[in-house]
């Protein structure tokens, strides 16, 4: 006997979270709950405004179609809507035991303001010191100076940088000019520095700063390739697609000697804990990019370890559909 319930949630965000062109006041999404016999599982479907190709309304309608399919036939066809494909595939993988319980809760701390705060948190970290800095929000020269300061202050630090295709080639060069050439090898990668892939590749070759593909991974026709200056691909499953598709991208990257990094799209604590399990399963030797739990003022059902933010329980959510 198969049963399915679809819940909606709306969690308050911290005041300062801005996505491209809008301030995000709540993190809205869906929780898929499947039950078959004595087994139960869940998956999160939460399109990210400004980044996802689908709206929450479209995802809701599509999920109901997929759940009806599962009730009748015990399977879910892969949706063309990435958030639906990923959330449903996670729920199925959890139901069948394919998704392991063990999780990688390590995180690369995100520098969202004062570099001194990041330096203090790095001092408290055990093991590999990896951090992430968003660049491209301010002047490229300022970004270069901040990155140089961090690399100078913490000699064992590896930095991941994300520019979100925000720079012209001239601005990217302005950034690189302020990063000591001796430190550049400790930039693990800079995600998509320039507005086009061609400019980003040329930047990597000219500066010796490795890059990673992020937005490109989600574009039609993307193929994982070994390219000079490309060190990694960043996989944000909510924006990318099903668990099987994400796994195929990871396998392609590893076969070509590239890093694959599982990264968040500001999911709830529930979604983040599931992503931590995916990361431990598919990329056990790489610290995932999951340092976003503090951006939301309420956790959801499954709390993130050592996080003291209040947790919203299942009975507090709205039932959208059930069968």
Question: What does the model show?
Answer:
There is one protein chain. The protein has helices spanning 56-73, 82-96, 115-123, 140-153, 169-177, 197-207, 237-240, 243-255, 269-282; strands spanning 2-12, 18-19, 22-23, 26-36, 39-45, 110-111, 130-134, 158-162, 187-191, 211-213, 230-235, 259-262, 299-300, 311-312, 318-322. Helix 4 packs parallel to helix 5 and helix 5 runs parallel beside helix 6 (197-207). The model has no long low-confidence stretch (mean pLDDT 95). The strands form 4 sheets. Strands 6-7-8-9-10-11-12 form a 7-stranded parallel β-sheet. A 4-stranded antiparallel β-sheet has the order 5-4-1-15, with helices on both faces. The protein is of the alpha/beta class. The protein has 9 helices and 15 strands. The N and C termini lie close together (11 Å).
Key descriptive features of the protein:
323 residues; alpha/beta; seven-stranded parallel sheet; four-stranded antiparallel sheet; 9 helices; 15 strands
């Amino acid at each position: 006997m198969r049963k399915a319930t679809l819940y909606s949630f709306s969690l308050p965000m911290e005041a300062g979270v801005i996505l491209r062109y809008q301030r995000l006041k709540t993190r809205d999404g869906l929780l898929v709950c499947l039950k078959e016999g004595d087994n139960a599982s869940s998956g999160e479907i939460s399109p990210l405004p400004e980044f996802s190709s689908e709206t929450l309304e479209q995802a809701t309608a599509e999920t109901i179609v997929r759940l009806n399919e599962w009730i009748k036939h015990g399977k879910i066809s892969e949706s063309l809507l990435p958030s639906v494909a990923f959330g449903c595939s996670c729920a199925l993988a959890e139901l069948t035991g394919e998704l392991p319980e063990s999780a990688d809760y390590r995180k690369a701390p995100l520098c969202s303001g004062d570099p001194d705060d990041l330096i203090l948190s790095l001092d408290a970290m055990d093991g590999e010191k990896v951090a992430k800095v968003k660049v491209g929000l301010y002047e490229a020269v300022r970004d270069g100076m901040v990155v140089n300061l961090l690399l100078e202050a913490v000699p064992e630090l590896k930095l991941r940088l994300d520019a979100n295709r925000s720079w012209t080639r001239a601005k990217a060069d302005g950034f690189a000019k302020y990063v000591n050439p001796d430190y550049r090898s400790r930039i693990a990668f800079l995600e998509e520095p320039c507005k086009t892939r061609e400019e980003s590749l040329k930047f990597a070759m000219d500066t010796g700063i490795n890059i990673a593909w992020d937005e490109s991974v989600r574009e039609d026709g993307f193929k994982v390739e070994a390219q000079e200056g490309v060190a990694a691909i960043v996989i944000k499953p909510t924006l990318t697609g099903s668990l099987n598709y994400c796994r195929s991208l990871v396998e392609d990257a590893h076969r070509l000697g590239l890093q694959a990094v599982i990264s968040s799209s500001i999911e709830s604590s529930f979604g983040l804990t599931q992503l931590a399990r995916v990361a431990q399963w598919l990329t056990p030797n790489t610290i995932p990019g999951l340092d976003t739990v503090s951006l939301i003022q309420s956790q959801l059902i499954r709390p993130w370890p050592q996080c003291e933010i209040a947790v919203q329980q299942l009975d507090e959510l709205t039932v959208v559909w059930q069968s």
